[in-house]
Amino acid sequence: MWIKCSIFLVLFLVLVVDNAWCQDDLKNKSQSLFKPIPDSPPQLENNPITLEKIELGKMLYFEPRLSASNLISCNTCHNLGTGGVDLQETSIGHGWQKGPRNAPTVLNAVFNDAQFWDGRAKDLKEQAKGPIQATVEMSNNPDRLVHTIKSMPEYVELFQKAFPNEKEKVTFENTVKAIEVFEATLITPDSRFDNYLNGDSNALNSKEKEGLQIFINKGCAACHNGINLGGSGYFPFGVVKNPGAEILPPGDKGRFEVTKTVSDEYVFKVPTLRNVELTMPYFHSGKVWILNEAVTVMGSSQLGISLNEREISLITAFLKTLTGKQPELEYPVLPPNTEKTPKPILNIIR
Ligand code: HEC
Ligand code: HEC
User: Fold this and answer.
1) Is the pLDDT of residue 13 over 70?
2) According to the model, what pLDDT value does residue 23 have?
């Protein structure tokens, strides 16, 4: 009797300890592949973060008068109430024009090595110059924008406070600098996965841990890693198998447009998977609305494997643990127009 009991006890202990080791192993492996989102924004190059810039940058982020129509702000396409995206296949901009690509989230974008699907802007400051001037987005120009801001004394004062040491205060450059600083504060720490990486083994349930294990073992983490589980590195969409023209329209050659190198055809920046539960539709084409389906496509296009139903649902369960604490903001009150403020340009383009 005693012997039998002891054998069971030993077996039981081996199982428990072994399981604990496996769990530790998964946590250690995860900690080496991924990093938690810090509680405060990172430093920016040549653009120190100050409270004055955050406040001004926030107003400019929500300011529709940065657009020619007075209708479109950064928040129109990167809505901070909906995960920093517009929930459109591809964005709608000036004159109701449909742009060519899906809007990626601004949340945690500060941790990306480069911006845009093709990485053509090196940081958030360079990035912000794009949409303001793009004819399919805000369709404005730097001179008109500076003229608009200078027409409102409250803004002039806020620029003076935010850029006390610069000779010219209200400039296009300072506008995008303030926006960059505000965007750097748009980070989403405290997701359950962050808590797990920070040491809380119970932050994920057993299914989510299994999903994480599959995500690592099958090779997803080879491209989706680091703080953002993406945001660094470029890969062809269709490393192993072309996902098909419906999901990968042949007209958009991705990074090829930037580098003009043949090997960069259909190469795109690995997108972040942070808050991916909120940022549908997926891919640069925005053609896939369901996360399960995006995971299935990735398995075949990037890894050449066909994931089974169970693996797909476990990976998806894991991906949903990447939803962090969303920025809570008070909507800014913007200065009133003056007589000098340019009137909106409302040409409808078809
Ligand atoms: C009309 C919709 C629209 C407006 C307005 C808009 N964006 Fe975007 N944004 C997009 C689209 C679409 C992309 C992807 C374009 C591409 O990759 O070629 C993008 C890309 C970005 C990215 C890159 C994210 C990443 O992961 O690569 C950031 C950051 C961003 N926008 C911030 C802003 C800011 C700041 C403003 C305001 C100054 C703004 N956007 C205005 C649609 C818009
Ligand atoms: C070889 C690199 C690579 C591998 C491996 C990889 N991905 Fe991706 N992933 C990408 C690229 C590049 C994109 C962007 C494709 C596009 O839209 O052009 C992407 C896009 C995604 C998206 C859509 C995100 C969005 O916001 O649009 C999801 C979800 C995703 N991957 C999950 C996974 C999962 C799960 C795995 C493993 C089964 C995986 N990926 C394996 C490179 C990779």
Assistant:
1) no
2) 82
Average pLDDT, the chain: 94
Instruction: Identify whether 137 is a catalytic site residue.
Output: yes
Amino acid found at 235: F
Residue 44: CB within 6 Å of ligand 1?
Answer: no
* The predicted structure's pLDDT at residue 16: 57
From the candidates 45, 52, 63, 137, give the one annotated as an active-site residue.
137
Q: What is the atom index within ligand 2 of the atom nearest the CA of 104?
A: 26
Q: Whose CA is nearest to atom 41 of ligand 2?
A: 220
The residue behind tokens 């974008």 is 109
How are beta strands 97-98 and 92-93 bridged, if at all? antiparallel
Q: Decide: 234 in ligand 2 pocket, CB within 6 A.
A: no
- The dihedral through the CA atoms of 47, 53, 57, 58 has a sign that is positive
Residue 69 sits at the vertex; the CA angle it makes with 89 and 60, to the nearest 5 degrees, is 85
Residue 32 has pLDDT above 90, yes or no: yes
> Residue 101 C-alpha to ligand 2 middle, in angstroms?
16
Cα of 145 vs its chain's centroid, Å = 26
